[in-house]
Amino acid sequence: MKHWFSDGAFRAIVRNASYLGSSNVVGALLGLLALACAGRAMHPALFGVLVVVQAYAKSVSDFAKFQTWQFVVQFGTPALAHNDLNRFRDVVGFSFGLDLASGAIALVGGMILLPLLGHAVGIPPTDFWWALGYCTLIPTMTAATPTGILRAIDRFDLIAVQQAITPFLRAIGSVIAYVGHLGFPGFIATWYVSSLAGDAALWWFAARELRQQSIGDALRPRLVSAARRIKGAWNFVWTTNFAHSIWSARNAGSNVLVGIVLGPAAAGVFKVALTFFDAAGTPASLMQKSFYPEIRRLDPASDRPWKLGLRAALLAGGLGVLVALLVIAVGKPLIGSVFGKQYLEAYDLLQVMCAALVVSMAGFPLESLLYIASRQRAALVAQALAAVLYVGLLIGLSHAFGIMGAAAAYFGGQCLEALFSLIPTVAAYRHRHTLTFYAPEEAKP
After folding, report:
1. Is 310 helix (H, G, I), strand (E, B) or coil?
2. Whole-angstrom distance, CA of residue 125 vs CA of residue 137
3. Distance CA 63, CA 57 (A)
4. CA separation for the pair 366, 354 (Å, rounded)
């Protein structure tokens, strides 16, 4: 481990993850406070409706959004490393234009589909207009350009600040709604305003950093013209878009599927378990956010990014074992005290899902390694195959074993994705000598 930390890139990964961790720990606690207030203020069925409304908007945005932050990191980080500012302007302009277009399409599509899918996903007619209003957040949910800009410029400290804004405001609003007995309207309004404020802060940080770098004009939509100058732009964004749409069906869409199969009350319990699972998996998600930009600054034909991936996987996997043991030890009393005894069933789910936590944390570098090797299509195939099998497991096991079957399906889905991603990653490593880091001829205006 001492030798690992002598590597400046590995130290940067851990340092940036620590920046994000400082806000995510606070954010996770504030998020639990907000959920606890909502869970205690409303009966489980109504709490489940609140969860489904938020999950519906997020599912639509995740399905439609392009992973523009990955595009900015993939193409913009090497351009900054070579001081090619014209190339970076094209990258940011293309990404920004794509966010605007996809956000508008997702908003219209989400609103049109809501009357058709609202009853199926567990949104009663009495709460339809609240759900329709919440859909206006979809355009801000789809935008990922500012996150990519801050990661490419290595301003993870600002991302850390921004990530604390939404849970902080949501916790304050939830406490007010709980004490003031504002009910469902108060909680859904709180979630709406807090999300909007957090997204607005992210855009402001990104625009300020671009001005300080003397490239403030980069944040202008250049969708068509920039795509002509960036080789492989459409290929990359479409592939990562499909991959993320599949990921959303497996994660954010899980609550919707559980709600369809078992009802809103079961969706609420499953949401509680997923909240603890996501909070426990925070170390790996933070390392992934700092890992990809850092290895994108390295030559993929060398051993260095691949060794960093192995070291990061071992570190995250070890942390996963410790976190899983901690969750098993304190999960039951924590759920009972925070959410109430009616949600203790979520602890039984967590005991099954803790095994998935270790697999998920140890496998986090695989996708990023495939991207730097330009094997994004292999990552897409791996996620698609795993997701199809997961959805089948989720529906089948939920019907057969109830909500415990949903937890078992979640574990199976994590294992399948890790396995299917590992195979092409090993193949890419064996052929790493054919990879290129940066081709100056692609950057010509």
Report:
1. helix
2. 20
3. 10
4. 20
In the structure encoding, which two tokens stand for residue 142, read together? 């789809």
pTM: 0.73
Specify the number of domains making up the chain: 1
Distance CA 177, CA 171 (A): 10
Structure tokens at 123: 């949104």
Residue 393 CA: distances (Å) to CA of 197, 398, 425: 37, 8, 25
| Token pair in block for residue 323 | 């976190």
Dihedral sign from CA coordinates of 225, 372, 198, 185: positive
- State the DSSP string of 172-208: HHHHHHHHTT-HHHHHHHHHHHHHHHHHHHHHHHHHH
- Tens digit of each residue's pLDDT (9 = 90 or more) over 88-131: 999 999 999 999 998 999 899 888 888 887 776 667 777 778 88
Asked whether residue 422 is assigned to any structural domain, the reply reads yes
214 phi/psi in degrees, rounded to 5: 65, 30
Return phi, psi of residue 339, to 5°.
-100, -25
Domain that holds residue 270: 4-434
> What is the 3-class SS of 96-134, one letter each residue?
HHHHHHHHHHHHHHHHHHHHHHHHHHCCCHHHHHHHHHH
- Can you tell me whether residue 374 is helix, strand or coil? coil
Dihedral of the alpha carbons of 326, 332, 337, 338, in degrees to the nearest 10? 70
Q: In this predicted structure, which of 119-128, 138-147, 422-431 has the lowest mean pLDDT?
A: 119-128
Residue with tokens 């329709």: 132
Give the 3-state DSSP-derived string for 240-282, with helices as H, strands as E and coil as C.
Answer: HHHHHHHHHHHCHHHHHHHHHHHCHHHHHHHHHHHHHHHHHCH
Q: Which helix (H) or strand (E) holds 39?
A: helix 8-41
Q: How far apart are CA 31 and CA 325, in angstroms?
A: 22
What would the pLDDT profile of 236-278 be if each residue is shown by its tens digit?
888 888 887 777 667 667 777 887 887 777 777 787 777 777 7
Collect all residues with Cβ–Cβ distance below 8 Å to 177 and sequence separation of at least 6: 37, 38, 41, 183, 186, 187, 189, 190
Considering the domain boundaries, does residue 291 fall inside one? yes
Domain contains 440: no
- Six-digit token string for 416: 């399948």
Q: For residue 394, what are the CA distances in angstroms to 9, 246, 261?
A: 39, 14, 9
Alpha-carbon distance 441 to 34, whole Å? Answer: 51
Q: Is residue 306 part of a domain?
A: yes
Alpha carbon distance 182, 190 (integer Å): 10
